[in-house]
Input
Amino acid sequence: MSYVRNAWYVAAWSHDIGAQKPFAITILGEPVVIYRSESDRLIALEDRCVHRMAPLSLGRCEGERLRCMYHGLLFDPDGKVAEIPGQDIIPNQARVKSYAVIEKHSWIWVWMGDAASADESLIPPAVGFDHPDFILGSGHLDYAAEARLINDNLLDFSHLTYVHANSFGATDTWARNRPVVTPLARGVRFERWITGEAGMRGRDDGVLHDRWTSYDFLIPGVLLMTGGYFEPGTAEACNHQAPDLDDALGGITFTSQAVTPMQAKTARYFFSWGPHRRHGDEALRDALMKLADMAFGEDKVMIEAQQRVIDATPDPRIMPTSADKGVTLFNRLVEKLVRAEQDALRNAA
Output
């Protein structure tokens, strides 16, 4: 599957990029090096020296510049070679690609399209560690699977009943009841009431509640979710619409998750999770993160096994079910945006 290029992809957590320490990641098959300059400016370049294709991520930061530590070529922040040791003339073509890069919501975002067209307003509104209302933990997992399969997993929570029986302890209501699915300009929204049930494992005291969950899944593959527990009868009183979260009895949390395609069949999955300060503390955050490690590990086992089956199947085809509405809407949106990008490139040529 193709992926949208005119979008912001999560490359790292903010704390992953140390001062003047190059950081390497591959996004959409392109090797990228990110570093903080002496002035604390974030810079992202193609991670491949023009001379012998050595990785610049093994280089040395010098002020605002990055030096390749194979034969010493020095690169400006815009990717142009500023110095070739022992050679006065620098060819005009001596440059590497530079990327628009922004630090926001505790993530480092890289725009994979034309840097000149980067639009900061398209960064999904995730919740970072500096948010005053939430106490968050973080992590990431590397998958030996195509990013699309992880996206599909996050776009269909009917799997919670089965994949996460040992972690979340979700009931079969998640598999049998469909959420309200709403298309967005750059994503899909999911809203769901689970009524008259105890909370999932690790998040409730066994008392029956009405539970509200809502999440947006946004281009290029970012999930932003919240929800909480309410008095029984709240769903009916709200006509099964969105409640006022200030009325929640507890369980208000926020999770930001991002899927970054690396190579064709590898991806990095970033996640944070934690309680609202009115409904939890650092101890609850740590318990939630322990639960997340278990649950997301369950996803990883299933999705990597799915990838192996797909690879071993001639002409693999899926059979959609009614639970795939959000999957279908999101993948069609991706295809539409990719076609628009390709058409724009052809017109420009």
The helical segments are 147-154, 160-163, 173-176, 234-237, 282-311, 325-348. The longest helix spans residues 282-311.
